[in-house]
Write a structure and sequence with these properties.
homodimer; alpha/beta; Maf protein; 7-stranded mixed beta sheet; elongated
Chain lengths: 197, 197
């Protein structure tokens, strides 16, 4: 299991997301948080490649200051609806507009991760389908007023008030929360197999 | 949203599960916990009907002591693999055997809920498919040693160490955690439509 594989390393989480920190704690991993300030510009590139590139950029910045006993883990979560990427909303108006677009539709959540040292690291990604219920304007207003959408890609959080809007998902739940636990485990197993951790 | 519908009621959660209490807190519902000691015998009855019957029995016992301003909410979660119901493991040996059976297979998690007063209540259920990765005996032993499987139907918890074993789900995540949030919301909306809450 993940805690066994990582027991001889210092784990450094290169992310400011409290949700990722919470997931690490759920699986018994104590980690230090070191936040990178790499920008994550949204481009026309394939979303999966884009999420891995963002994750690798964050990883490289943080790993550059670490030693070989540190395992740096970074992640980048992207919400894709009909080919368009929905980032973190800039203001409540954009949050309302994003939620109107998600309402009654299925979108994709992709998280890219990058794991290892500066020299030896691997990238991977996970993709999950998320089906939203039909939202009325009162629900959207009430939800935006909670403040929950404002710091989240796609303007919703699956693990809070937003849980009420999710009819079903297909794939990894933790990926939608911001960190694909099983994909991370598979990546670590592959790195162990390659003898690089 | 759920908190708006329930704002004039005392919400009573007829369940000892800390995970259900946590879900209520995630969606902003303050509730009182009143635990029923109704037995939940596993029978040959259809699992969905069985989960709703268990939920209704717990509901009725607790609701009998409540007044009309109380909304009692109960739930019962059942894990079904190849037609067999896996309850809470009696000991670590049974936990190991359940995890061996879940390994590499897809099972179904069904949660029945019952909501309302003694006179006016509605039952519903939600069903989610859960795909487990292939587990080796070391992983199973390590997991059982964490103690996490012992108080959970099917001998695993999706929201803790067990998250590492889940390759994907199809349906509601919160249902697997023990309480189907969206189904609960739909049930409340239907009850409001019927004018019984």
């Amino acid at each position: 299991m993940i805690d066994k594989i990582l027991k001889d390393y210092n784990v450094i989480l290169a992310s400011a997301s409290p949700r990722r920190k919470e997931i690490f704690s759920l699986i018994g991993i104590t980690c230090e948080v070191v936040v990178s300030d790499v920008a994550e510009p949204i481009t026309d590139e394939d979303p999966a490649l884009q999420s891995m590139r963002h994750a690798r950029n964050k990883h490289n910045e943080v790993a550059a200051g670490c030693d070989e006993n540190d395992i740096v883990v970074s992640a980048d979560t992207i919400v894709v609806l009909d080919g368009a990427i929905l980032g973190k909303p800039r203001d409540t108006r954009e949050a309302i507009s994003y939620l109107q677009r998600l309402s009654g539709n299925t979108h994709t959540v992709i998280t890219g991760i990058c794991v290892g040292t500066l020299q030896n690291h691997r990238c991977a990604y996970e993709s999950t389908q998320v089906m939203f219920s039909q939202l009325c304007s009162t629900e959207i207003e009430h939800y935006v007023a909670t403040g929950e959408p404002m710091d989240k890609a796609g303007a919703y959080g699956i693990q809070g008030f937003g849980s009420q809007f999710i009819r079903r998902i297909e794939g990894c739940y933790f990926n939608v929360m911001g960190f694909p636990v099983r994909r991370f485990y598979d990546t670590l197993l592959a790195m162990k197999q390659e003898d690089i951790i």
